[in-house]
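Dear support,

We are seeing what looks like truncated structure output for some complexes. This example has two components. We would appreciate it if you could run it in full and send us the complete token output so we can diff it against ours.
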Amino acid sequence: QVQLVESGGGVVQPGRSLRLSCAASGFSFSSYAMHWVRQAPGKGLEWVAVISYDGTSQYYADSVKGRFTISRDNSKNTLYLQMNSLKAEDTAMYYCARDDSAYYFDYWGQGTLVTVSS
Amino acid sequence: EILLTQSPATLSLSPGERATLSCRASQSVSSYLAWYQQKPGQAPRLLIYEASNRATGIPARFSGSGTGADFTLTISSLEPADFAVYYCQQRTNWHSVTFGQGTRLEIK
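Here is the complete output from our reference environment:
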């Protein structure tokens, strides 16, 4: 069965960096685009970034553009999110999600919590 | 950026009743709209895609309708497990993926 397991979250000071990982299994990872979606505590969902199946294309929400980098290693079935220059407003649960090939999210991980605080 | 406005913010109903949730886009998104259900402490779950297609394993009591800028998620007869937060999401392309702010469906 499809599984997505995020890791790498934690408490980090403003201005510092963090890298999230999402380990995928149960499907052909290299055939699917992948996304990061976040949810601030008690708030709604916010799309963060997407990467194509082969890693050649990436797109970002304006709120993270220039600070976050999405990448993937298809040999390791793993998705990444490098987050630099973190701000308090980046505090959220970060989910990785599979693109169903039509820009919808058909499978989600359970999320990893990032808290940006001094 | 295309904005999605969901209404009502909170809907209070009893099990067995019919639920109607609305999602309005700031401009046409054609039929490129999905609905998700999220329960406390869980990741969202895809219910409906392309406005009216049920995702795999989703019960028939969930249905979606609409096109252009106005969309509706209907739950024909509420079961206790259906009380959750529901989000709509549009995708015109990878450059534009947005969610509505959510509708909380609570037990009356």
